[in-house]
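Dear Dr. K.,

Following up on our conversation at the group meeting, I've run the structure prediction for Biuret hydrolase from Entomobacter blattae. I'm pasting the input sequence below exactly as I used it, so you can double-check it against your construct before we proceed with anything downstream. Let me know if the numbering doesn't match what you have in your notebook.
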Amino acid sequence: MSALLSHPVTPSLTPAVEIACNIKNGTLHVQDFIEHVLESLSSRKLEKTFGAVTSILTETAQQQAAKIAADLAHGRDPGPLAGVPFGVKDLFDIAGKTTTAGSRLLANNPPAVEHAHCVQLLVKAGAIPVATLNMDEFAYGFITENTHYGTTRNPHNIHHYAGGSSGGSAAVVAAGLLPFSLGSDTNGSIRVPAALCGIWGLRPTFGHLSLKGVYPFAKSLDTIGPLCNSLSDLYTLYQIMSDTHPSKLKDLSQTLSTEDIRVSQLGGWFTEDVHPFLLQRIEDMSSLFKGPSSIELPYTDEIRAAAFLITAAEGGTLHHDTLKTHADMYDPALRERLAAGCLQPSSTYLMAQNIRTWFRHTFANLFAKADVLIAPTCSDIAPRLDTPFVTLRGKAMPARAHLGRYTQPLSLGGMPILAAPLHIPTGQNTPPLPLGIQLIAQPHKENHLFAVADQLQKIGFLHSFQKI
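The predicted structure tokens came back this morning:
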């Protein structure tokens, strides 16, 4: 265990599917295992170190573990994720628990009457929700610096951010405390923390996964998805969350051949200010496949501005009435951003939506040249907590708003995007913390993403960061 990580839990990077197999064959006793997980997550020292966990779902977890134990005792198959613990970003409904979305404004709301739909699917497959996880308040930010619940720190170096807004979801997985978690991604909130923590994440095609029971941010951009340490787990989780019957689940060996998949680097805007090591790896990866070496997306500045305006307008509208009556209960920085969204004229919002329509047509033209595009997720490693800035065209800019520089424009198109951790060999000239890439495909072409990611992993370009 690294001296940089000061908590009593020995990281365990066992894939979810392997945990389920061990529970089914009796190697691992589900109730004992879940008690150990709950105890680890409840560690006061861990809480102070990470700031990743907002609540422990002890009763829910124990009841589910007992049910799985009973199923096994009676010869019933509990499902493909039997006994696998997971956490949820604190905007997913958990039955009997108040969903706070990272804000004290919702703390006195009545408890949810049922799990969010995607949580129900995972529980049906045998998985066990054990914790709710920290996030930027109302998911508006890229660093998980929360006034009410604290800042989530990067498990690979606690002096650095974990990213956001699904920072707690990424941190517990990167530390090996949980095999997977759920996050949401409006403008990059799965992809950014996945990259900065060195794990895998997925923003599926917009609208593919149900958002029932998930607290909204900007409804025309919101998506949800899993984060985990294993590409094979990511593929399994995506299928389960898509409501695939257990008998029809596939593994990575059954994905498409990459022989005819055209892959290109996304150039221009997506090469500016990027860490040289990351940029070189992207060039090397794209050179392995058919397709143009690089494709450029025009007017990326304007596209990102449109995504920003749509987010601000929809977020501001959602909170308009509450801002009038309880403005003092919001994080001051968040309050200003939401208020600005409320004051945005409708003509500006409509103009941003017109840009969105144009962008989708433009991106469709890019996919006439390539099936998968590769871009950086963030420009560099996670910023330090005492230096919360990123470089943007030679200027230091606030990380809270600008860590999503390369993710936010792509959100506008509704495409599926897979966040993949770059393999970083040990060496004096290699980055000390994780870096990640985005693989982008046409809507409903997640199979292309998994095929390319699998191939790049086999070659050795991609791997979960494991220097803890």
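Two things stood out to me. Residues 306 and 353 are 7 Å apart (CA to CA). The domain at 263-459 is CATH 3.90.1300.10 (Amidase signature (AS) enzymes).

Best regards,
J.T.
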